[in-house]
Structure prediction request, 333 residues.
Amino acid sequence: MRKSGLAALAKWTVATAVVASLLIPSVAGAHSATIAPGRIRGVVTAATKAGRAYRAKLESRAAGLGLLGSGSTNLVYNGGPVMHSDANYAIYWEPSGYSTSSTYKNIVNGYFSNVGAASGATTNNYSVATQYYDGTGKIAYSASNGGSAVDTNAFPASGCVSLSGPCITDAQLQTELSKVVTAKGWPHGMNTMYFVYFPPNVTTCTDATGAECSGNVYCAYHSSVGSGSSTLLYANMPYDGVSGCESGQAPNGDTGADSELNVTSHENIEALTDPLGTAWYDASGQEIGDKCNFTFGSALGGASGAQYNEQISSGNYYLQEEWSNAEIGRAHV
Prediction:
């Protein structure tokens, strides 16, 4: 187990010890002594006043159930399915007037290609997930880059109360995701993961109240819609080149893209181990990435501001650690 060398993030790491206790607390089959992840899962909270307040609320809730401090415990299997392989798709929702650069997209798309090319390797964070399982066996590090698309459909009317500018609710995101998947003829099911990336100056919120939104409270989350063969697994990926969500290092020379890949790895590996909120999490509802949120371990190389701690195929990345039950702690490989 390697601990983070970034002292500035130490308090953030401790504070996120109960982050994944989420918005809808009950999931069938979960242990009665745990807080199960809800519809919105694997929330990467922002290092902001609102993000800290959100964490404090979750901590208070866990403390009331006698679970505060359980963040040091291992993940527990709760009976649900895992992803045994994953085809990863990137959707960039960018109507006229809103965009990310081609460099940004190339870095993100290249990441998914490298994750796929390195399938089966034991030298990066994805291999940590292979110790976890469901009733049909262990997770295999078997990834692929399914493809990408730029969605130029106009944003819907703001679904969020009292917020100016484009503001997309989780329900609106689900609707658009379904449209794109149908139009592209892309697959549904438990071996496919969709990442919906938003450009700068666009807010996303968990619901219409506007109480829990990107940049202010969170940097990303994952969820699902549908069931059985119609399931769509997805991650909400707001633009993270903003204060509170940046990783602090940009080995690929693009702060937005490099920071986005840190939370992309968080949500990707959490979806592998807990796609429906019914598989692997600890007593306070934390998933594999939540327990190591913004804990990066030692750098392998790179100049200050451009350090990397993961080499995945031909790419260098700066990614958080993941929780290893085998090591009873954070693992960075």
